[in-house]
Amino acid sequence: MIEQDLPDQDVADRDVLETDQPLLIAAGLGKSYGRIAACRDVSFSLYPGEVLAIVGESGSGKSTLLQLLSGQLAASAGHVSYRMRDGVTRDLATLGEAERRFLFRTDWGFVHQDPAQGLRMAVSAGANVGERLMAVGWNHYGRIRDTASDWLTRVEIDVARIDDAPRTYSGGMRQRLQIARNLVTEPRLVFMDEPTGGLDVSVQARLLDLLRSLVAELNLAVVIVTHDLAVARLLSHRVMVMKGGRVIETGLTDQVLDDPREPYTQLLVSSILPP
Amino acid sequence: MTAMIDVADAMKTFTMHLQGGIDLPVVSGVTFHVNAGECVVLSGPSGAGKSSILKMIFGNYRCDSGRIGIRHRGAVIDLATAEPRQILNVRRATIGYVSQFLRAVPRVATIDVVAEPLIMNGMARADAQARAGELLHRLNIPERLWRLPPATFSGGEQQRVNIARGFISDLPILLLDEPTASLDAANRAVVVELVAEKKRRGVAMVAIVHDDEIRHLIADRIVDVTSFAAAA
Description:
Oligomer: heterodimer
Distance between the termini of chain B: 37 Å
Strand order of the largest sheet of chain B: 6-7-8-3-9
Low-confidence stretches of chain B: none
Strand content of chain B: 25-35%
Radius of gyration of chain A: 20 Å
Structural class of chain A: alpha/beta
Strand order of the largest sheet of chain A: 7-8-9-4-10-11
Shape of chain B: globular
Mean pLDDT of chain A: 89
Number of strands of chain A: 11
Helix content of chain A: 25-40%
Strand content of chain A: 15-25%
Number of helices of chain A: 11
Helix content of chain B: 25-40%
Largest interface: A-B, 36 and 32 residues
Mean pLDDT of chain B: 93
């Protein structure tokens, strides 16, 4: 809270902060199935370049929330708004199907826990990455292939494997390919659902490290769902802890993990095994 | 002259919900200020709350009440009530923190661990690495180690990497938690020099130092933390 303005204040810097507007806004978001509420009254704003981790155990509502935020599930209550590339903030519910699909192909990414859900397993790696580019109107084969090779290199996949289908890839490679496919259109917002789940520990460390540097380089805004607090600590700026469909604690990641307030958060933090 | 750090009546209690909800008072009535170019050393026995106070100033621990006034970009911001985004901005532009232990990401080379704060603030990678190299050199980390991740280094080497990372930025406030704990005499002397240079540049510092000799060399003032002991 800025309380006092002093004469030597750096106006330019302040302006940058003040004109900075949220990219994604959730307001009073909820989803019920009959009498069962999977997710209740979730509100937050996500800014460009900000990584928000949603943590909690299975059944806490975190995956439902991710689907609501990404417009894949209709909310029973509340709204999700997104600031489009033209600077206009729109309610996702008012977007037409074509507009929503376009968002998903260009400005958004979605990294699934199971790469088979986010990739086409039978077509080549190059085509998996190139397909996103063609969907936004690229039509020069050579440029598409060059950009795809570039991205394979960035996610540390040997370019010699560009014509192989991801079903011949290891789990870690598939996940890195899924990331390349998502990032090739330079999205501003990426949703991630347990992106390191189901991978070996050493493969996980490599993926996390890669994600961390890509997110910083590209100034991506990310909403990441994870049950792994170490992943949240490494990747996120802010954390929301969910339990029984509600957000029970929220704050700066290191604050919530080093100084947890709620009984459930203290339980989560104390359950981490020492390395 | 406005103080760079102005802590007023800050209080911190841990409520341990898993231990039957007992309250563990840490500190209360914490009040002191730090001016530009000054190093204030917190003193008191282990468990008196020195590290907790440092963490409150960094926005890592939340305060129950009171105020943590930080001069940030020419205005005063209260970290006890600031939004997470504001705290992150303060950490990017104003407050650096040198913890006792290095929390490094696996696989990242030492030179990049040290250079990262500058790159994050927009400096070109090559320039940032050059500055990182100078600091590592001064702190006697041999060049053949710069390309390796620090995870396999000795405790003293890791601490020096951590110090290099903490001192590399030109931030106006620096918090030091036992920066010399596992260093030999030669490297302790380097840290004393680095602190003196920061003072000359007007950096406000708060430090925890157990070594009496180092404390005398760097402290402009000593704040006794035992006076902030929270009544149980």
